[in-house]
Amino acid sequence: AILVGLAAAAMWPGLFTGHNTIVGNAGDPSLFIWALQWTPFALSHHLNPLVTDYLHYPSGANMMWNGSIIFPALVLTPITNLFGPIVSYNVMALLGMSLSGWCAYLAVRRYSERWISAMAAGLLYEFSPYMASQITEHVHMFIAVLPPLLVIFADEILVRQRRRVWLIGGLLGFAAAAQLMTGTEMLTISVGMAIPALITLVIIFRAQVRERLRYALRAASWALASFVVLAGYPLYILVLGPQRPSGALEGYGYYVARPESFLIPDNLQLLSGPTTVFDSSVYIGVPLLILVVVVAIRMRRLPVVMASAVTVACAMVLALGGRLTFHGLATRIPLPWLIPAHLPVIESLLPVRLMVAGYLGLALLVAIFLDRVLETPLRTRIVGLAAAVVALVPLIPTLPILSTRLEIPAFFTDGSAQRLPPTGSVLMTPYGNHYADDPPELWEAMSGLAFKTQLGSLYTPGPEDGHLIGPDTDPLGIELNALGDYHHPAPSVLSSSARVTYLSDLRAHAVTTVIVGPSPGAAQVEQLMTELLGKPGTSTGGVVVWYDVGAVTG
Questions:
Q1: What pTM was estimated for this model as a whole?
Q2: Residue 352 in contact with residue 282, Cβ under 8 Å?
Q3: Among 306, 304, 261, 253, which residue's Cα sits nearest to residue 280?
Q4: Which one, out of 112, 206, 280, 342, has a CA that is 20 to 30 A from the CA of 18?
């Protein structure tokens, strides 16, 4: 209740200022809002929710590579059906953040003697700079319950071994399957960052490995069987399914931390400084870094301290990427991330996001420190608690958490879109990779998926075994990009060759309707479409619509 209440207070403007307001930015959340609508729609219409042609029509897209969030969407289906995908998205943000903190509390409580120390650890994880960054855009990353759950499973399977092996193994497999259908990147990070801690524990308890191994292997077998049964088909779609992109999706070495990023706060912290890292914050701060180093040295005989310290150190080093970067300039100094960075799947991980495991390790170390401090005499206790406050206060995020009001034309919410043809597709503008403020996939979601479109900011296969993000860059798409994104003037008269090419592009996507939405360059796009289709569009519900386009394209 405390963790949910604090998260709700931090998100207050986004949660309670209108049905078109979301927690976070415009842009990436629109695809997740679409996914919340898509999953129940697909299942109710007997469609495969793991692939779609409602975006990127007619070739479609592989949703396992595009933030499908199947599991959260299934859980939130009643809310989506009753209140719509925007309300459902905000509920997901609230629950994702608070459940992550709660799972961290449960994991830390196994090693903490006091609930208040574990609560401080849960709050550190819930409101960490990592979470403050991801909560504004990336659902598949701010639902960060798996890292602390893996701590609990590891404790049960490797240490306590008191549960029925089929039960604990089956639950581990279920957790991994649920995470695969929430976000593959978090699953990969969680498993990968568990390895340093496990190696540390094996070294510490090497004399006991043999007696513990049989139970652990049986549990792992049950976990694997459970995972294969629950996630075998989604895994098949991910690895061998249609429309798989390839290559590093975000570009190698782009989202990496710099050494100063760990020490200097950025604009995500209440005590803010200059922005020092792009996408995900890795800030720890000098006071907290000193505190955890002291704890690691003074309490190094505790296995949980050593495992946590190793996890934090590995997360920090790997977050730096494959080559050391100073002040935005990459050097030639190689780093450990260079080894796995070019492996399939792992090449698409963003190094800075590995710090989610680092903050969990920090939370454990802080809780153990608070336990020891609360056992000391009053004067020492006051000094220790003051040191903890000094270490933790700089991590408090800027509050309230950012919220955004989404502008959705009435055409997509008043029932007008329901009258569009059920076959073919709808060409909408803004078009291209730069429609973050006016994303057409959001408009499609708010229509109840009443039509298909060639648009969508999704990863799909590209030329030369690579990938593309965004709709096809055919000649008409290039022209629409130029008009909308780059403010080029529309041609007053189309040449015959351009007209033939553009009409051919419309036919290739079976376009039945063209909708020009409110966006930069809309007047120029409207002029182009009027010239191309030979008639002006109909202004309705905040958009301009050309119906029966097939009659023009033949």
A1: 0.93
A2: yes
A3: 261
A4: 280
